[in-house]
Amino acid sequence: MSSAPTAPHPPAPRSFFGLSRTALVRELEGRGEHPYRAQQLFAWVYRRHQRDPDHMTNLPSTLRRDLTAWLDLGLPRAAAVRTTPDQATHKFVLALADGARVECVSMRTDRGYTLCLSAQVGCALKCSFCATGLMGLTRNLRVEEIVGQVIAMGEFLSWPAERFNLVFMGMGEPLANYTAVVDAVRILHDPHGLNLGARRITVSTSGLVPQIRQLGAERIPVGLAVSLHATTDALRDELVPVNRRWPIAELMSAAREYGQNSGRRVTLEYTLIADVNDRAEDADRLAAMARDLPSKINLIPYNPVPGLPYRRPSPAAIEAFVERLYPRAPAVTVRQTLGGEIWAACGQLGGLGDGA
């Protein structure tokens, strides 16, 4: 005797945080709801920071009752949160649904809050001075896992500021996960959601030239930060191996094009490593490169990583490098090291087994 057919399992709810407002409209219309409900949902979640449908009082009771059956408003779980003694910097270790872990960082300064986002679990680019590069690449993050980092950090901090900055400078190469990163930027930029201005969002890259040009064509004037770290191809081949595919001349050409098309100065990120790239001639070449395109220089004194041979320059060496750049370079800043004591500073994420 044949057994009765098994009833099909209902599809798993889609993550709210992976949906643009346009995609949410389609989901709602497919269920017979008015399209303007998408704008209401965006306002509740992103503006009023409310994820419980029971409190979304301008939605009909039937929609509130049924919402979680097809829409997942959950966030990645914080497996660990490390905090600096001054409470200014937090490193979050988020547990993803498949068991992978990813790190992100919130930083408070006199100029406000900055949230540092990851785009991948690990990284495939193997920059020789970076802890994340030692991990290798596990996988790309999905849109909801990128947007979810922002919401998870905001909720933990009780949304202390209406406006904040976002930098894609955490784990992974953002432009290697191009579609998910751009889709996440569009959601975070949506005027009916968090409404983050494009000038508050910066995407960093180690030098994926085709994607830099593609990003420029999107016409979303987010900031572009190029992880340069060397002024000769020979040294950059060693420090940032992707340079062997797209050497400095090609990278600077793409960066110049991006700056001209976006109307924004490109940031040249330059990690200062003792006795590696901190000589006077390095400063002279860096200044010349910065003058050749609309740019500013962000110097990053090296943050030590256990097991790697590199050292942070002395304060005197950092000061000498900066003075060598003036007045040759258009604009120079030295990044304040935040979170080094909890292994949350630039280049340290994943370095102590907190990642995947």
Number of domains: 2
**In DSSP terms, counting alpha (H) and pi (I) runs of 4 or more, how many helices?**
11
**Order of strands in the sheet with the most strands?**
3-4-5-6-9-10-11-12-13-14
CATH architecture of the largest domain: Alpha-Beta Barrel
General description of the model:
It is a single chain. The protein is of the alpha/beta class and 356 residues long. It folds into two domains: 59 residues, DNA polymerase, domain 1, CATH 1.10.150; 266 residues, Alpha-Beta Barrel (TIM Barrel). The protein is 33% helix and 20% strand. Strands 3-4-5-6-9-10-11-12-13-14 form a ten-stranded mixed beta sheet. Helix 1 packs across helix 2 and helix 7 runs parallel beside helix 9.
Layout of helices and strands:
Layout lengths: L13 E2 L5 H9 L6 H12 L13 H10 E2 L4 E7 L5 E7 L5 E9 L2 E5 L3 E3 L8 H5 L1 E4 L2 H14 L8 E4 L9 H12 L11 E5 L3 H9 L5 E5 L5 H7 L8 H15 L3 E7 L7 H12 L3 E7 L13 H11 L6 E3 L22
Parallel strand pairs: 1-2, 6-9, 9-10, 10-11, 11-12, 12-13, 13-14
Antiparallel strand pairs: 3-4, 4-5, 5-6, 7-8
Helix pairs in contact: 1-2, 5-6, 7-9, 10-11
Summary keywords:
single chain, 356 residues, alpha/beta, DNA polymerase, domain 1, TIM Barrel, 2 domains, two-stranded parallel sheet, 11 helices
In short:
This protein has 356 residues and is an alpha/beta fold.
